[in-house]
Amino acid sequence: MAEKRSLQEKYQSRKIHPVPKVPYRFMSWVAKLLYYKKFDVHFNIHVDLKPYRDTSYIVLGNHVSRIDYVYLGLPFYPDTLNYVMGYNEIFKSHLNLVLRAMKIIQKKNFVPDLYAMRQMKRVLNEGGRICILPEGMSSISGHNQPSQSGTGELLKHYGLPVFCVKTAGGYLANTKYNLEERPGHVEVDVDLLFSPEDLKNMTEEQIQEKLDLALWHDDYDWNKEHHYAFKSKGIAENMHQLLYWCPKCHTPLQMESTKDTLRCKCCGSGVRVDEYYDLHPLTEDSVVPDTPSIWFDMERAWVKKQVADPDYKLEEHVMLGILPPDHLLKENRSSEIAGEGILTLTREGLSFKGTKSGKDFEFFLPSKSVPTFGMCNDVSRFYTFVNGEFLEFYPDRESTELWDQAVEEIHHLNNGKWKDFPPDHPANKRLSKEFLDSL
Predict the structure, then answer these.
(1) Order of all β-strands in the sheet with 313-322
(2) Which residues pair with 266 in a beta bridge?
(3) What are the backbone dihedrals phi and psi of residue 240, each rounded to the nearest 5 degrees, phi first?
(4) What pLDDT shows up at residue 3?
(5) Which CATH number fits domain 7-226: 3.40.1130.10, 3.10.580.10, 3.40.630.30, 3.40.50.300?
(6) Which distant-in-sequence residues (6+ apart) come within 8 Å of 29 by Cβ?
(7) Which residues touch 147 (CB under 8 Å, ≥6 apart)?
(8) Phi, psi of 316 (to 5 degrees)
């Protein structure tokens, strides 16, 4: 008798074809019913889409939230889109049936995935269309990360029209640090980014650079200008998991948050966050960054200086999560605990020593093969792939974002394949020289 295949083996053997029109259009109607009025969604379409109907093309978007897929498809209706999504999402019981019916293409984020590439090729060759969010993960900070390496190569290879969907307000309605939905206002702009002729005449590097400029957006900066209120029961709740570093005393992992405040336990500096996400000082001597995303960039600059030390080490006890081989995950879980051990990050790479499924288990990944970590739901845990297997880490401390920034900056420092934005990109002009000199 043949050995029973695991869920992972079953899903990696699926052949994906263009999504059928009837279920796709039904789900588009459901998404519109559930979200568009709630989040006050407005579309601004700057290109005539009619000439592209029923042809193959690629849709790209900035990845602002967990529910970006409800914004991306409607502008192209009645055309259908096959969405490229994180590999692990299909293992969640409440999403599994819908994702399979929508013929999503599951991709292992931040590692090469030949399976996903083959499925994208099949869909496009059969006259379908694909939607990719090239950052690979929903925004952590409220602004973009660079597109994943190889995006320019992929677009040039296919040579199809490429549309850009830029969403504003989506992060503020569904932040990374809190799973609460926060009604406010969302704007969605659609335009043609590349024609086939553009792709033919541009290098892969030029394509990627133009893409990163086109997708660049900061929701906090945007709302400073537009001033939309976002309804929340606890607008700052869990924000300390993201903004873990004190801008006054520079101490990490000592921030604490309540319903609407964020405060350092060491020096007392803190802020109150209002319904517009504006920051207000808790005390006269509190240090208050302009926006939460600027705060995030400040702590990243601090991390960048820390990892420049050749002896840098980040080490912590973690619980180890895996995807079960024979059943789906319930209650919005992203993995099941199967072991524990010590996770260590140095300038050389990432290592683990402990147990998995009742046996001794360890690995080492060189820094160039770990560009970043994924985060399935929020900022409480993080994952990577080891020999193709999804492994999720639950740190003892609320240190996920520290791990994420440190692994990224070490990857950049060691000239990894995934590059930071170039020096003249707007992302690298946000912090003052005085602040950088003070670190």
Answers:
(1) 359-366, 349-356, 336-346, 313-322, 389-395, 382-386
(2) none
(3) -65, -20
(4) 73
(5) 3.40.1130.10
(6) none
(7) 134, 135, 208, 211, 212, 215
(8) -160, 150
Tokens of 358: 């009742």
pLDDT, position 2: 58
Please tell me whether the overall predicted TM-score, pTM, comes out greater than 0.90 for this model: yes
From start to end of 35-185, where are the E strands?
Answer: 41-45, 58-61, 82-86, 105-107, 130-132, 162-168
The DSSP output letter for 89 is: G
- pLDDT tens readout for residues 4-18: 899 999 999 999 999
User: Buried b vs exposed e over 419-439: b needs ≥16 C-beta within 10 Å?
Assistant: bbbeeeeebeebeeeebeeee
Domains of the chain by residue range = 7-226, 239-307, 313-413
What's residue 148's pLDDT?
A: 93
Question: Which among 62, 235, 71 is positioned nearest to 142, based on CA atoms?
Answer: 62
Is the backbone peptide bond immediately before 422 cis, with ω within 30 degrees of 0? no
Rounded Cα gap, residues 175 and 157, in angstroms: 34
Residue indicated by tokens 């973009």: 144
R_g of the chain computed on alpha carbons: 22
d(CA 100, CA 383): 23
List residues bridging with 364 in a β-sheet.
351
Q: What is the distance between the alpha carbons of residues 17 and 120, in angstroms, rounded to a whole number?
A: 9
Query: What's the confidence (pLDDT) of residue 332?
Result: 85
Rounded Cα–Cα distance for residues 82 and 85 (Å): 9
What residues in the chain have per-residue pLDDT under 70? 1-2
Q: Are 332 and 377 in contact (CB under 8 A)?
A: yes
Label the pairing between strands 279-281 and 389-395.
unpaired
Q: Is CATH 3.30.450.40 correct for 313-413? A: no
Report residue 432 as tokens: 């003052």
Distance CA 307, CA 299 (A): 12
The DSSP-derived string for 74-88 is GGGTTS--EEEEEGG
Residue 263: both structure tokens together: 């405060």
